[in-house]
Automatic annotation (TrEMBL):
CC cofactor: FAD
Organism lineage string: Eukaryota, Viridiplantae, Streptophyta, Embryophyta, Tracheophyta
Disulphide-bridged cysteine pairs: 467-523
Organism: Nicotiana tabacum
Signal sequence annotation: 1-33
Cross-referenced Pfam families: GMC_oxred_C, GMC_oxred_N
Descriptive protein name: Protein HOTHEAD-like isoform X1
Amino acid sequence: MAVVGGAAALPLIFKLLLSLLLCFNSSPSLTQAAGKWVPWEDRYPFIREASSFSSSSNNANNNKAYDYIIVGGGTAGCPLAATLSQKFSVLLLERGGVPFANANVSFMQNFHIALADTSPSSASQYFVSTDGVFNSRARVLGGGTCINAGFYTRAGPSYIKKAGWDSKLVNESYPWIEKQIVHRPNLAPWQRAVRDSLLEIGISPFNGFTYDHIYGTKVGGTIFDRFGRRHTAAELLASANPKKLDVLVHATVQKIDFDTSGKKPRAVGVIFKDENGNQHKAFLSKRKGSEIIVSSGAIGSPHILMLSGIGPKAELEKLNIPVVLDNKFVGQGMSDNPLNTIFVPTNRHVEQSLIQTVGITKAGVYIEASSGFGQSGDSIRCNHGVASAEIGQLSTIPPKQRTFEAIEAYRRSKKNIPHELFRGGFILEKIATPLSRGNISLVTTNADDNPSITFNYFSHPRDLKRCVDGIRIVEKIAKSKHFTNYTQCDKETLDKLLNMSVQANVNLIPKHTNNTQSLEQFCKDTVITIWHYHGGCHVGKVIAPDYRVLGVHRLRVIDGSTFEESPGTNPQATVMMMGRYMGVKILRERLGRTAGL
């Protein structure tokens, strides 16, 4: 069941069928209470459209000013809001809609369709980095947990120590997430083959099913349940105090408002736009300890800071943005973990699976896998415009050539592709801790527009060496005996697989085909993303160790933009944990023992 462009265009009968499926497939949009199915609106009565907000009744001089305003209802923002609402009034602002009843979000089988949907109502907002690599940002309550591959694994002890976190509170915060939305996967055949192949080539020991980050091969958790239904960070809002939490969706924050009359600027409120384009202002309470917390992700958070006047002075002045604080480090030090894949075609149908097995190597790379996407009829023949659902990336039609005629030609050719060609799966290789760094910079002052984003993939020679080492591991996996159930893979076949991967429409980088002797060139030609980008608001440069923004009062940043490295093999577990962790930490700092958490 694939839905592209939103449910509004569906025939009425299809909407009814979708509603039934959502009801009886352990839907996160409905909850069972007293033997009855309850609509999500009843479970989350505090979630409303942004247009319902009344600026006139919310000002700094009355009781409706908020103790905390959180900008971004994503992977960190949802657990943070749920936690802070236990004791204080919280306003959570999310630019996207709700994930509930969105089939592209809810069903694992539609994982690739959600990424291919480039409509304005999509849960993902695509962008192309200046490197020529296609990418996506979440635009939905629940953030990246709504559009990712679902894999759940914790950061290692060394990462926790380096971050300066309290390990006891960390180990209390992870289970708070896991008890609510994390599941043990039913291991798919492709994942079993990858697991056994990893062990065969020496990525050992086998650590079984575990959330822990340990060298060797393991099976991790997932936010997909046994029915293939996704459970997102938005569901963590069920743990909130509904009397103290307001969540506004389709609320696009334009900027943070500051009082600049004192020695340091003080955050006093936020200006946001609702779904109808009308502007509102939400005020922060004058009570001591009240704060605005930006949790808009590695791209969104530095972007909002700059739109609000915190960033490199010269860049802000170019766009006539009043400078609140000159900080040259905002938006700098961005990093994305480069991903390279080999597609292994098969001679039979392969069960769909997303990441379940991972090989944590000592070569500085992680090995993961997915299978079965793109082989269904609806995937191949759905109208995706210039998007390719088979690989979850965009077509390599250059932006200036994306005419109506070009799009129509692409659609026609796509419809004639036999879907049997897409049987098979991917073996994925990800650089663990890339040293290459990039930045983001403003293009316009419109908060809806993507900033210019550069990651500089493989600009550091160590990253390229690690990629080569990783591709050699993938080669061994493809030739291992456990993959003979899927394909006979000798050197000649492997060369063909490498060249087929080079020729795939995965990015806008010029290709060097028939060059399998140069794995360095293969890495450069076929680099894509696994959506684990981070940085832009680093500790010591933009924020203090307690995540307060340097040089201003009553403003913090809490999300992946503060990371120097992406935690674990996949970051979502730690980003959600961070939201819970910092929520508890803030309450304890403000209330002491009376926090009760």
